[in-house]
Amino acid sequence: NKDFWSRFSEIDTDKFVLVETAEHLVINHSNAITAKIIAKAKGFRIAWLKGDFTNKELMQSYSNNSIFLSYKKCPIFLKVYLLVIAIYYYLMYVVIRNRVLSFKYKGIYYGDFIYDSYLKAYSMATLHRFDVRIIKVFYNAMLRDKEVREILRRNNTIKALLVTHHVGLDTGCLTRISLQQKIPVYYKGGGHDTFVFSVFNSLNEVYHFPKKPTKVEIDFTMFKYKHEVEVGFKNFVEETRKKPTGTFREGYGNNIYSDIT
């Protein structure tokens, strides 16, 4: 790998594209190739966002002058402070207002992340207002916000970002904060012989994703294709019985039950 990619080295510069690394080797490989394309086109070097799972030797084999950046651990007193704030936001946005999607923190809407992360973490079909575990989701969102802002402040030579996911707490927060700070975000998606590539330049572009259906479209679909939607949903639920290859196998570990539901 190193012998091959050394023929396509990046220039020496203090301008970097920050690149998400992943546990999945195929995602890492496609990320690295896309990162090199961006770096060559824009005159950047590559900075890998290092996680506990990151194989430094493997990632550097794609770019010998690349560097590694990682989130800095927050002090305990700050974590306690964020926990207190998380309790306040839970009471305000969930228990009292029941408007979690309107949650905004430091100028960025995170309500959709709170909602989705709660469903994913606890295998829920919908939000349960009086579930105190939502506090932990608020806390995790604000903690990641703090970590991202710190790494961008500490490394102000980051001029672009490459991610494979622009939703969720992990790279979703990173995406939105980067856009808030006028750092363009490249999105590489796809899989199974499919390659999706786009660039975001503003927060509005990720808030209002082009493929997101509008309320009018949803209402029209339910009015005209009610039977087809019901049949499709029943077939989807039936997939949960197909172990170990069912649709819910990865997302929910075949667990669609909770003590609350």
In percent, how helical is the residue content?
40-55%
Instruction: Using the CA coordinates, give the radius of gyration.
Output: 21 Å
Order of helices and strands: HEHEHEHEEHHEHEEHHHH
The rough form would be described as globular
Count the DSSP helices.
Answer: 11
Cα(first) to Cα(last) distance is 49 Å
What's the number of extended β-strand segments? 8
- Summarize model confidence as the mean pLDDT: 88
Strand content: 5-15%
Class inferred from helices and paired strands: alpha/beta
Q: Return residue spans where pLDDT drops below 50 for at least 5 consecutive residues.
A: 256-261
Could you characterize the architecture of this molecule?
- This protein has 261 residues and is an alpha/beta fold.
- Helix content is 48%, strand content 13%.
- The protein contains eleven helices and eight strands.
- It has helices at residues 2-5, 25-42, 56-60, 76-96, 111-122, 134-154, 171-180, 203-207, 215-224, 226-238, 248-252, and strands at 16-20, 45-49, 67-69, 104-105, 108-109, 158-163, 185-190, 195-200.
- The strands form two sheets. The chain has a six-stranded mixed beta sheet with strand order 3-2-1-6-7-8, with helices on both faces.
- The chain is globular.
